[in-house]
Design brief:
By secondary structure, the chain is mainly beta. It has no helices and 21 strands. The chain starts with 10 loop residues before the first strand and ends with a strand.
């Protein structure tokens, strides 16, 4: 009788935000925002890997938790406005040789009775298994195995803003803590209100009582999506050697990225 000495799943799919996308797939931009009369946009993807890869592109609806994790949306919650019915895109699948790129065109179609507000869905780029990834392998000893192919998917938020939208954000509940590894960590809450999401970079600086201000922590590409009023965040701090985080002031800023205008969105301080 033939024995099966090893077996695995044919493929595993891990979904990551575009900012954490696998090294072999580069996406730009990492978010797409339609505002005003804009009706089309383009997203570029490049295969930075050493092997040919195929990606299937789909629209998915995802919800962000207070701690930044995403989950699939089965039924929208109150105030949760999805963009999948407003969007069209092409192509639906691409195969890229190493170093090759492909443009994905995204178009928005708004019905005449569309309610003002912000609508969001995500484009998911899911790597597809090659034929060799699901082929049985027989050895000379009559053993059968299945080759494992680990697949990774990256998602890009696509946001449609219609009519007048705005948002404000405040940084509150600042606390200096220690991570599980014993390193300093600044915990805080981002409180959002208004009709649109916010997106930007968090920067933490420390000013000792007798010394100059120094940047000791960053977290780039941090979003609070509608309808969430709150996001909890923690920023790892790396103070210079010999500079204790005491007898001074921690300052944290939340600022738009340069390509979005660089506007300061919020600022707060913690005295130590």
């Amino acid at each position: 009788m033939t024995s099966i000495s090893r077996f695995t799943l044919c493929a595993l799919l891990f979904m990551l935000p575009a900012g954490q996308a696998l090294a072999q797939l580069m996406l730009y931009p990492t978010r797409v925002v339609f505002e005003g009369n804009q009706r089309s946009a383009q997203l570029e993807l490049i295969n930075n890997g050493s092997e040919t890869a195929t990606y299937r592109i789909t629209l998915v609806n995802r919800r962000m938790s207070e701690t930044g994790e995403f989950s699939d949306v089965a039924e929208p919650l109150a105030g949760e406005q999805l963009a999948d019915n407003l969007l069209q895109y092409s192509p639906r699948q691409v195969t890229l040789e190493p170093g090759a790129g492909q443009a994905v065109r995204i178009m928005v179609r708004k019905p005449a009775d569309l309610v003002a507000g912000e609508y969001r869905s995500h484009l998911l780029f899911a790597q597809q298994p090659e034929i060799s990834g699901i082929r049985s392998i027989e050895s000379g000893a009559g053993e059968i195995g299945i080759q494992l192919t680990a697949l990774v998917g990256a998602s890009v938020p696509v946001i449609v803003r219609h009519g007048a939208t705005d948002a404000n954000v405040a940084l509150t509940q600042l606390q200096l803590q220690r991570s599980s590894s014993g390193l300093p960590l600044l915990a805080l809450q981002m409180q959002r209100n208004g009709t649109q999401s916010v997106f930007g970079d968090l920067t933490v600086s420390f000013t000792p009582r007798s010394g100059a201000e120094q940047v000791i922590g960053r977290a780039n590409g941090v979003a609070v999506y509608t309808p969430n009023p709150l996001r909890r965040a923690g920023i790892a701090l790396q103070p210079p050697s010999g500079l204790p985080l005491s007898n001074g002031t921690l300052r944290v800023t939340y600022q738009e990225q340069a390509e979005d205008g660089g506007r300061l969105l919020a600022e707060a301080e913690l005295s130590l």
